[in-house]
Write a structure and sequence with these properties.
The complex is a heterodimer of chains A (312) and B (92). In chain A, 33% of the residues lie in helices and 28% in strands. Chain A is built from ten helices and 18 strands. The longest helix of chain A is centred in the middle third of the chain and has 16 residues. Chain B contains three helices and four strands, in the order βαββαβα. In chain B, strands 1-4-2-3 form a four-stranded antiparallel beta sheet, covered by helices on one side. In chain B, α1 runs antiparallel to α3. The chains are: A alpha/beta (312), B alpha+beta (92). At the A-B interface, α10 of A face α1 of B.
Chain lengths: 312, 92
């Protein structure tokens, strides 16, 4: 997915300490490849292989090299670089851009940004931000909570009690990520990260009460900006067909990622928060390699097989 | 409908006996009926509606269980429980 330099500017200017020093009107240039390139080799005149669709980073190496060139040669090399239709330049360590760079930026319509960060830190931080901006993303129905580091998504029909369950969990000291609408992003590691829509973040709607602001009522410990998703819990009216052993847990797919899924029957008077809490704890145990249901079943099968009755 | 009590001896035919999965199937089937359903072996008697009960009764492969159903829908319940035993609980 291609993004524009402007997207990076809007989303990352604060974390990356960026400022615009030239070509502000050309920020809509597309980053066809959402990564960075050090153009040192290109500045020596080598263009047989040049990643011209990436953001070009001018660090200490590039500046020191340019300084070693005679003035006329320096301008020519820079112009050759700008001719490659690069999407944008970032100058690190707050170095001053030379007059030549500023003039070429205007001439070739290339935005030039500057950061106070050293190159290595900038590249690391910018990689993370670019990955976030380009990761596949979806909006799904459900309330997301974090319990002891386990990300849980509560789903179910309207009125089944997602928000009420979330509220009980908050009172037990766990954290709200999002109420009812959850944004999900797939990371390059194949994990799902959930967070809340910017506008409604940390607000909840409770029937009969209306809208509440969770951190104002319960403190900042009651909220979490984002969480990795470990477990989906579907709240449903009882069918009598619920899983009774948990030996073969269900899985669902969200954006192509398999996530364990539990269906919990909701009856009036049943403490759903308590059950969700135990489900999360049990999931944590499973991730540590201890599957209680399976271990008990193996133990029973072992005993039963030993007691096999022949011709009985 | 008349209250009735049925007793049947059923043999455990599957490879591994009554472990978690067969126990869950029995509990789900039994749960649908009003009547009391018990399973007995070697003097141990447990409710067929309790998964923990069924897992402790030692339903070894090849052994015989005594199933009792009593209540208004005893016949239907017994038929379904028997069917599960005969089908080896859907296992080999």
């Amino acid at each position: 997915m291609a993004i524009t330099v402007n997207t990076l500017w809007e989303e990352g200017s604060e974390n990356l300490s960026l400022s615009i020093i030239a070509g502000e009107q050309y920020l809509d240039r597309k980053l066809q490849e959402t990564t960075m390139n050090r153009p040192g080799l290109a500045l020596t005149g080598f263009f047989q292989y040049f990643a011209n669709q990436r953001l070009q980073i001018f660090g200490l190496a590039e500046f020191t090299y340019l300084k070693s060139l005679p003035q006329a040669e320096k301008v020519k090399r820079l112009e050759d670089l700008f001719k490659q239709q690069i999407p944008g330049i970032v100058i690190t360590r707050n170095r001053k851009a030379s007059k030549e760079i500023l003039a070429l930026a205007e001439q070739y319509k290339v935005p030039v940004l500057r950061t106070s960060m050293v190159t290595m830190n900038f590249v690391n931080e910018c990689t993370v931000i670019l990955e976030k901006l380009t990761a596949p993303q979806e909006r799904i129905q459900g309330t997301c909570m974090e319990l002891m580091g386990i990300g849980v998504l509560l789903r179910g029909d309207p009125g089944i009690g997602k928000s009420e369950t979330a509220l009980s969990l908050i009172e037990r000291g766990y954290s709200l990520v999002s109420d009812d609408v959850t944004e999900v992003r797939k990371t390059t590691r194949g994990r799902l990260v959930c967070w809340a829509n910017e506008v409604t973040r940390y607000h909840m709607e409770i029937r009969g009460l209306g809208i509440i602001h969770v951190p104002s009522l319960f403190g900042v410990a009651a909220i979490r900006r984002q969480t990795e998703l470990d477990l989906v819990i579907d709240l449903k009216p009882p069918t009598g067909n619920e899983d009774r052993t948990g030996v073969h847990p269900d899985e669902i797919e969200i954006m192509g990622v398999k996530v364990p899924c539990i269906t919990l029957p909701v009856r009036s008077g049943r403490d759903m928060a308590n059950i969700v809490e135990v489900a999360a704890l049990n999931q944590k145990l499973k991730e540590l390699g201890h599957d209680a249901a399976k271990e008990l079943d193996d133990k029973i099968i072992n005993r039963l097989t030993k007691g096999r009755v022949r011709n009985g | 409908m008349a209250e009735e009590t049925l007793v049947k001896k059923l043999k455990v035919l599957n490879e591994y006996g009554i472990h978690a999965r067969p126990a869950a199937l029995l509990v789900k089937a039994a749960g649908k009926y009003e009547c009391d359903i018990f399973m007995e072996k070697d003097g141990n008697k447990v409710s067929c509606k309790s998964i923990m009960g069924l897992m402790t009764i030692e339903g070894f492969p090849g052994c015989t269980m005594t199933v009792t159903t009593s209540g208004s829908d005893a016949k239907k319940a017994m038929d379904e429980i028997e069917e599960l035993f005969l089908n080896k609980f859907g296992e080999d």
